[in-house]
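This entry is listed as follows:

___
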Amino acid sequence: MKTAIACATALLLVAGVTAHGQTLRTRRVMREKLVHTQRILEALTTSNLTVLERESLALLQVTESPQWSEVNTPELRPYTDAFVKAIKDLAESARQRDLDAAAAQYGTLTMTCYRCHKYRKDSRVATQR
């Protein structure tokens, strides 16, 4: 009985992940990405250039991890390329100690996330029709 409940629970979890378009690995990499972007926002609002540069570089490292290859598919490459460019520009602004430019790059960075997630949502809705 416990095995049946465990199997049913596992199936529901897998179905839930599939329905949302994420695997457990992509969920982890997206969560890590979110943590760094939140820290970047905090660094911007507190003018902490050290944290801003560190977190920008940490976010860039996420895109160089093996897990990133799951989201860097040919279909999503324009979005991931724009994301990486925004991170590099943000890190450069932090290195130059230019908070205004960094804030603008943060806006660009978050829009790349939004556009990619919107595309994924819209394509899932279109395939469900």
About this structure: Residues 23-128 form a domain with the Four Helix Bundle (Hemerythrin (Met), subunit A) fold (CATH 1.20.120.10). Residues 22 and 32 are 14 Å apart (CA to CA). The radius of gyration is 18 Å.
